UniProtKB/TrEMBL annotation:
Residues 28-127 form the HTH marR-type domain. It comes from Streptomyces gilvifuscus. PANTHER family: HTH-TYPE TRANSCRIPTIONAL REPRESSOR YETL (PTHR33164:SF43), TRANSCRIPTIONAL REGULATOR, MARR FAMILY (PTHR33164). This is MarR family transcriptional regulator.
Amino acid sequence: MSHRTANLPQLFAESRRWFEDALFASMEAAGEQPVTSTQASVFALLDDEGTTVSELARRIGVTRQTAHQVVHALIGMHLLEQVPDPGSARRILIRTTAEGRRVHERAQATIAVIESVLAERIGAAAVEALRQTLTADWGEPPLIAAP
């Protein structure tokens, strides 16, 4: 990572990229299908019983059309499936397949190992402090008038 005079959002982005690079390369080396960052984020945002494409789009922060494309690519990879919503005949839910759950569990185990490598490199106390800082309640985002 390059730590020139980067601001915190840039450092967060570089750190996320470091984790994703390690995760995606490790998963591909283990023989898993390659996925994009957006495709990977879908798994963390799905409810166990399924989630609509519209709700996924809101959670990811993309348009419904983009979410639809991402979901259908993952359906084509046999990682997600569409099922009728038992609460509404007009809605379709997206949920993981058995293969999708297997891949997601493998990714979670891989992330745990990557976190342990980070702890070896920067220290377990630093990783724990980082985790506590990132999970602290930061409150609502402030509305700041530029000087």
